[in-house]
Design goal:
about 190 residues, 3-stranded mixed sheet, 5 helices, alpha/beta, 7 strands, about 15% strand, DNA polymerase, domain 1, about 30% helix
Length: about 190
C-alpha cells in the first residue's frame, strides 16, 4: 500500500471531521424535543419547527401549562401530547375542564384552564362578551351563545371530540340543527 502524503492526510482528516459534524447534527435534530430542526426559530418560551413534513399539525398551547407556545406534533396526536410538549400542566391547571383524549387539528388552540378560588375555573371561564375557545369550551360556556341551548351545546362538544378538534368555527356548519343565524352567533362568540 502506498504511503499518503501529508496533504492527503489533512484532506482525509477534514472529510472525516465534516462527516462527524453532519452525523452529530442529524442525531441531535432527531433525538431532541422534536420541535427543533435546522430551520427552527426560537422564542423565549417555545421552539417552532418550520420544516415542511407532511402530516404534522401545528397547535397553540395556552393557559395553565409550563411553556405556552406554538408546537408541531405528528398527525394523530392528542391534546394530552400537546400539553406534554408544552412542559406539562402547571400546578393550578384544571385538567378535568378539557378533553385530553381528543385528536388535534391543524391550527387548533388548546387552552388549559386554571383553577380559580374554591376550585372554580379561571382561564376557562369567559366574560359574557368575550370570545370562547372552540378547542376547550364546555357545554355550559357554549350555552351562553345566543341560539345555543343545552342539547346543541352537548352536540357541539361531542362533534368536536369525535372529529379530533376543530380548526375553524365554520366546521360546525356540517352539524344538523345549526342554521345560518346560529352560525353567525357562533362566529361572533367563538375562536378556533
Amino acid at each position: 500500500m502506498p504511503e499518503l502524503s501529508r496533504s492527503q492526510v489533512v484532506v482525509y482528516g477534514a472529510v472525516a471531521v465534516a462527516l462527524l459534524l453532519v452525523g452529530a447534527r442529524a442525531i441531535r435534530s432527531e433525538g431532541g424535543d422534536g420541535a427543533a430542526s435546522a430551520a427552527s426559530t426560537s422564542t423565549s418560551s417555545s421552539r417552532f419547527s418550520v420544516s415542511s413534513s407532511g402530516g404534522d399539525v401545528v397547535v397553540d398551547v395556552a393557559g395553565a401549562v409550563q411553556r405556552p407556545g406554538v408546537y408541531r406534533l405528528p398527525a394523530g396526536a392528542r391534546v394530552v401530547d400537546a400539553i406534554g410538549r408544552a412542559g406539562g400542566a402547571a400546578g393550578d391547571a384544571m385538567l378535568e375542564g378539557i378533553n385530553r383524549a381528543a385528536h388535534l387539528a391543524d391550527g387548533q388552540q388548546v387552552v388549559v384552564p386554571e383553577r380559580g378560588p374554591a376550585g372554580a375555573a379561571a382561564a376557562g371561564a369567559v366574560a359574557e362578551d368575550g370570545p370562547i375557545s372552540l378547542g376547550s369550551a364546555t357545554a355550559e360556556q357554549l350555552e351562553t351563545i345566543d341560539g345555543i341551548g343545552p342539547v346543541t351545546a352537548v352536540k357541539i362538544v361531542e362533534y368536536r371530540d369525535q372529529h379530533g378538534g376543530l380548526a375553524s368555527v365554520d366546521q360546525l356548519d356540517r352539524m344538523s340543527g345549526i342554521g345560518p343565524a346560529t352560525m353567525e352567533s357562533l362566529r361572533a362568540r367563538l375562536q378556533p
